[in-house]
Design goal:
This protein is an alpha+beta fold. The protein has 2 domains: about 230 residues, Aminopeptidase (3-Layer(aba) Sandwich); about 100 residues, Beta Barrel (Elongation Factor Tu (Ef-tu), domain 3), CATH 2.40.30. The protein is built from 7 helices and 19 strands. The strands form 3 sheets. Strands 1, 2, 3, 12, 13, 14, 15, 16, 17 and 18 form a 10-stranded mixed β-sheet that branches. A 6-stranded antiparallel β-sheet has the order 5-4-9-6-7-8. Strands 10-11-19 form a 3-stranded antiparallel β-sheet. Helix 4 packs across helix 7. It is globular. About 50% of the residues are buried. The mean pLDDT is about 95.
Length: about 350
């Protein structure tokens, strides 16, 4: 059974979600957006003590609870020092590749609610000035933020309300092409969040209930490896919806769904992976089975956290992960379709 997903909704939902800043641990701006989308389809959002949002779906059979996770956090930065010349030094939130953010626009959010744009700059920022402009490593010792304000001292910056510990969002530079390709930062994992709402839309419009009681979770700390460490006790199956990878010795394809059999922390549940393969085939979802080297998800974090459950992982395959990524609408649609096939147990 093939599920007709609303592609335009997927695109529009992603475009809105990706523009909302949510670097690791920073949920202030995304919370009301998630709540609004949930309410649109008749659901409410609840939170655990860590701030992880959940949406609960009543099942046809509530004796079993399953969970699908699409992490809401993205890569980001944190101000760690204000230099004497008014530039900002930062530390990474998550696995930033600084080579991929040089020249990017960033937004600094102060704790009193103000925000300021700036640009990520390398100390050897010009080939016309620095002989090592092409060779200097890009890292948190060589990169800084140049604020888009007329500041020339530490005191000038402090007068703006900026201080150590302020969150920094990187502009996503989102673009959909006429040929169906999505180019943007944070496809990992805002595309999966959009898929979760596309699934809710389909269920709501067709009057359908999942086979079992289902929780949708949107953790804010996946990028530092702990988003899935805590799971509600009643959950017996944890499905991480996260990007697949493309590269040498990988099977990933932007127009297919990647089902991950093993990541760097170990294998996912053998029987559950087999079930996902069966769901994909019945729902006519193009897929590949893959093994990932330098990658992990909230699903494996849940297992390593000692929770009494089994886990699996799947999602749209992307080029250039942790940079400005690229995938295709077919892979995003396929991810939403496989989510539906799983929760409906078809």
């Amino acid at each position: 059974m093939k599920f007709p997903i609303d592609k335009q909704f997927l695109i529009d939902c992603f475009k809105e979600l990706v523009e909302v800043p949510s670097p690791v641990g920073y949920d202030l701006q995304l919370r009301p957006v998630l709540e609004r989308y949930a309410a649109r389809f008749g659901y409410t959002v609840t939170y655990d003590r860590r701030g992880t949002p959940y949406i609960e779906l009543e099942g046809q059979d509530n004796s079993k609870t399953v969970l699908l996770s699409a992490h809401a956090d993205t890569l980001g930065l944190m101000v760690r020092h204000i230099e004497a010349d008014g530039t900002l030094l930062v530390r990474a939130l998550g696995g930033i590749n600084y080579c991929n953010i040089e020249g990017s626009t960033v937004i600094v959010y102060t704790r009193d609610g103000r925000s300021y744009t700036g640009m990520m700059v390398c100390r050897s920022h010009s080939v016309h000035v620095f002989l090592d402009a092409r060779t200097l490593p890009r890292n948190d010792e060589t990169m800084f933020i140049l604020l888009d304000k007329d500041v020339h001292s530490k005191e000038d910056v402090q007068a703006l309300g900026i201080q150590n510990g302020d969150i920094v969002h990187i502009e996503p530079e989102c673009e959909f092409t006429e040929t169906g390709y999505l180019k943007s930062r944070f496809i990992d994992d805002k595309a999966a969040v959009a898929c979760a709402f596309a699934m809710l839309k389909y269920l709501s419009e067709n009057g359908l209930k999942p086979k079992y009681r289902t929780l949708l979770a949107f953790p804010y700390r996946e990028e530092i490896g702990v988003g899935g460490r805590y799971v509600p006790e009643e959950v017996s199956e944890y499905i991480a919806i996260d990007i697949g990878l493309i590269g040498p010795q990988h099977a990933g394809d932007e127009r297919k769904v990647s089902i991950c059999a093993k990541d760097k922390n170990g294998p996912y549940d053998y029987e559950l992976i087999n079930r996902l393969i069966g769901y994909a085939e019945k729902a006519e979802v193009p897929y590949v089975l893959d093994v990932f080297l330098n990658y992990s998800t909230d699903g494996n974090a849940a297992v390593r956290g000692g929770n009494n459950l089994i886990a699996a992982d799947f999602g749209m395959a992307c080029w250039c992960s942790h940079g400005r990524e690229r995938t295709h609408i077919d892979g995003i649609e396929g991810t939403a379709q496989l989510m539906l096939a799983y929760v409906l147990d078809i």
